[in-house]
Amino acid sequence: MNSEIRSLEPKAVWNHFADLNAVPRPSKKEERVIQFMVDFGNKLNLNTSVDEVGNVIIRKPASKGMEDRKTVVMQSHLDMVHQKNSDTVFDFDKEGIKMYVDNDWVKAEGTTLGADNGLGVAAIMAVLSSTDIAHPPIEALFTIDEETGMTGAMGLKGGVLTGEILLNLDTEEDDEIGMGCAGGIDITATRTYTEEETPDNVTAYEISITGLQGGHSGMDIHKGLGNANKIMNRLLFDGFTNYGLRINEIDGGSLRNAIPRESFALITVDNVSKDAFLFEINEQITTIKTEFKTIETNLSIDVKEAQLPNKVIDLGVQEGFIKAVYTALNGVYRMSPDIEGLVETSNNIARIIAKDGEISIGCLTRSSSETNKMDLANSLRAAFELAGFTVEFSGAYPGWLPNLDSEIVNLASKLYEELHQEKPHVAACHAGLECGILGQNYPNMDMISFGPNIKGAHSPDERAQISSTKKFWNFLVQILKHIPIVG
Questions:
Q1: How many CB atoms lie within 10 A of CB 438?
Q2: Which pTM does this prediction carry?
Q3: Is 52 annotated in the active site?
Q4: pLDDT tens figures, 319-363
Q5: Active-site choice (30, 116, 139, 146)
Q6: Is 51 labeled as catalytic in the residue annotation?
């Protein structure tokens, strides 16, 4: 299967990508991929080091005739989002990604592909291992833990790098040159509850929401995609008042940076009301499917009778919990007043789990405005605290403010137009790139972000376009060839 991938053009990029995807590399468990990169650098006899947090830095001297050019930092992150379909049997800690070609796309079998940001890593590896590409002095920076906290970028100390220009290869539209991004903050609401005995004369039901697209909680948040946690909450709302509905367990979503695709709940309803409940919930299901019919064509919502649980959530807690989730904003909070079409501030209700006396709700709030990021975060905090939750803010990281006078932006834009006879889309994005964090310790570094077309990132529908990867590679090679002379 990987032999099919290895025959794709540009072969150097796809072969390195296949090698990389054979190495398990979940966020916060990057030991194996760090060693993989160290071995790669050492095999090439390049100056290779690992900093105190686990970032790998590989330095390569300039090619002949390029010694007087500015040093370039080429940067991508080593970790990948681990998501799989519920019916896919796969161990991310032990197995390499199973890839296949589908027309002009590379996909994975029921899991995320790891093109985010594996194709960026592979492209840097291709430059480092090349013998015929013109390039300036290079500092290749491979960061860790981008997807769940950006701790690699945060831990990189000032003075480690000497480059004046940074090429971040973590953008997912091949006609886009990124010059800014959103910051973010994790919001976690928790509370305990007393489990009560399941009432008498009730029937248990399992509710399953599956088949949603999911996707990137920044780049896709404006698309109106279904959020499994919000849909489940909608089905349960007013359930006690109408049918004596009690909740035993809810398990929805997974990672903060992925729009939740699935949610599962085990509930009970009064026997006297179960016919009315089934009629009403099926009416709701029809309504929801109609609302999403043009965008969530594979949405499935199933309700089936289940074994009666022994315990249910304390009723007062249940009602406050459901109302708090209904109140909490999910989606776009504010569009940018300065850049047309750009989401400024948003929230993703990413993870909800209620089980065994504990409830946890995990959100990721993003914004290119620090003040509006905290405004929305405090709004969510208020909603959850009113329902008796303890709310914690963590993992905050800054955005990347656009530099309208950037030399590398102007150079890349000119080269793109010469290559493709059209102007690129130069813009900020509503995603958490590492440039903003790196810029804190390297404020004078001139930065851009670009990459190939990658669709469905952070979901098992992730796919990378083959023709676009070739376009991206040619663009990267041209940028390296035209890096300005020092001074």
A1: 26
A2: 0.77
A3: no
A4: 999 999 999 999 999 999 888 889 999 999 999 999 999 999 999
A5: 146
A6: no
